[in-house]
């Protein structure tokens, strides 16, 4: 390594410890809205708000969340884990007690809250995929949700979809117990979501409006990643096709009224699915992701971009040093390495290159709604770029601070977001005869 390269590494380490990388919510947003900060660490604040959001769907309670929060030391991921896990474990035990006593509604509601808090507790464990707590924590969170699912009427169905030589887990939430063919929303999660959370955030709102709701853990997400070792893949149509193949076999699905809804990185996956599948009548991209790699490297200072191109070993060394003092950035990069099956930091960045819609965006023909959250950090500018390049009937809606909906995935404003998105879907589905 020559002197210039060495100085480049030092410069990168310095730059990555300054704004915008110091104490940012790298995974989703550039901090929580003014007045909603729960921690000085922006990602802690965002993730706590993410858990609290579920009060809208009765999958969280305010004081329970604050009991967890008050026991968490800012920027301390172990205390984060313990704070939320204590609440999750307590409620899981309480739900079991309710169930054994025959109080099934109380058991169902308590299982859902336990599942939410356990998911939240494990969030930062993804910075070290070898941490044994990941498996145990996720398994208990999912078990709690599945127990709740069995107590709905009709029950939330848990289905295994054949995929290559294994299966993909899918939840199907019926709008009604009868077999009347109904509009169906198929939801695709993002970088760090799981199917259980998507049912909580969006599924219950969908069925209230007469939609069936289906969601699943694709490669790189939830059970598929944690328990099955399936990693993200750019050709998502290979994942979505067997999902839609199953959906169209159901008698309770109106085959002309299937909508696909992608959130976060799902704003790449869902459009990709639509580009290859004419059975999908409507698309919602919240928000749209046109080019993941260009969005990712735009977060790097120039010296880092140059090192990535010219000296991957130096890039890895400099990035590793920069990550040591940044909880958020460290989590995002290491979770990305895990979900993309990347061996190094540079490998993670480079493995995102194929995740773009450059050659296929004009193949999307169905009416499309693009959601642009104005405080998104990770995919900043991507929704507008995606919208501008679409050639199908399209609409873009900005989610702003004036509605409290500016955060990535509209965390903290799910009621407003559901109104906007489901109203759009209902209007366009009603136009299909």
From TrEMBL:
Keyword terms: Hydrolase
InterPro entries per the UniProt record, alphabetical: AB_hydrolase_fold, FrsA_esterase
Molecular function as annotated in GO: hydrolase activity
Keyword Ribosomal protein: no
Gene3D superfamilies: acylaminoacyl peptidase (1.20.1440.110), alpha/beta hydrolase (3.40.50.1820)
Name of protein: Lysophospholipase, alpha-beta hydrolase superfamily
Protein's organism: Thermodesulfobium acidiphilum
């Amino acid at each position: 390594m020559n002197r210039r390269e060495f100085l480049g590494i030092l410069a990168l380490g310095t730059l990555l410890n300054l704004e915008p990388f110091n104490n940012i919510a790298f995974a989703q947003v550039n901090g929580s809205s003014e007045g909603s900060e729960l921690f000085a660490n922006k990602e802690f604040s965002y993730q706590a708000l993410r858990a609290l959001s579920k009060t809208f769907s009765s999958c969280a309670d305010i004081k329970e969340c604050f009991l967890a929060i008050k026991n968490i030391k800012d920027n301390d991921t172990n205390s984060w884990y313990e704070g939320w896990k204590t609440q999750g474990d307590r409620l899981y035990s309480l739900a079991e007690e309710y169930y054994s006593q025959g109080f099934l509604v109380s058991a169902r509601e308590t299982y859902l809250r336990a599942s939410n808090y356990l998911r939240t507790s494990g969030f930062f464990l993804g910075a070290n995929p070898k941490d044994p707590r990941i498996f145990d924590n996720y398994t208990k969170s999912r078990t709690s949700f599945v127990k709740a699912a069995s107590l709905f009427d009709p029950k939330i169905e848990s289905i295994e979809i054949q995929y290559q030589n294994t299966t993909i887990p899918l939840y199907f939430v019926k709008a009604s117990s009868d077999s009347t063919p109904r509009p169906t929303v198929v939801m695709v999660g993002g970088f760090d979501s799981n199917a259980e959370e998507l049912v909580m955030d969006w599924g219950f709102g969908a069925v209230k409006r007469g939609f069936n709701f289906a969601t699943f853990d694709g490669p790189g997400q939830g059970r598929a990643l944690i328990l099955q070792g399936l990693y993200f893949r750019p050709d998502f149509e290979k994942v979505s096709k067997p999902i839609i193949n199953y959906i169209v076999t159901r008698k309770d699905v109106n085959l002309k009224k299937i909508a696909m809804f992608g959130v976060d990185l799902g704003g790449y996956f869902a459009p990709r699915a639509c580009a290859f599948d004419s059975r999908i009548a409507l698309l919602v991209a919240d928000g749209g992701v046109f080019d993941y790699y260009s969005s990712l490297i735009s977060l790097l200072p120039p010296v880092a971009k140059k090192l990535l191109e010219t000296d991957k070993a130096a890039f890895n060394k400099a990035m590793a040093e920069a990550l040591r003092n940044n909880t958020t950035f460290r989590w995002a990069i290491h979770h990305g390495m895990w979900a993309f099956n990347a061996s190094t930091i540079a490998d993670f960045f480079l493995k995102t290159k194929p995740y773009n819609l450059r050659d296929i965006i004009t193949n999307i023909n169905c009416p499309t709604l693009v959601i642009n959250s104005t405080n998104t950090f990770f995919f900043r500018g991507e929704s507008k770029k995606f919208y501008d390049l679409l050639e199908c009937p399209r609409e873009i809606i900005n989610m702003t601070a004036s509605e409290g909906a500016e955060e990535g995935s509209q965390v903290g404003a799910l009621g407003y977001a559901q109104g906007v998105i489901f109203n759009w879907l209902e209007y366009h589905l009603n136009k299909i005869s």
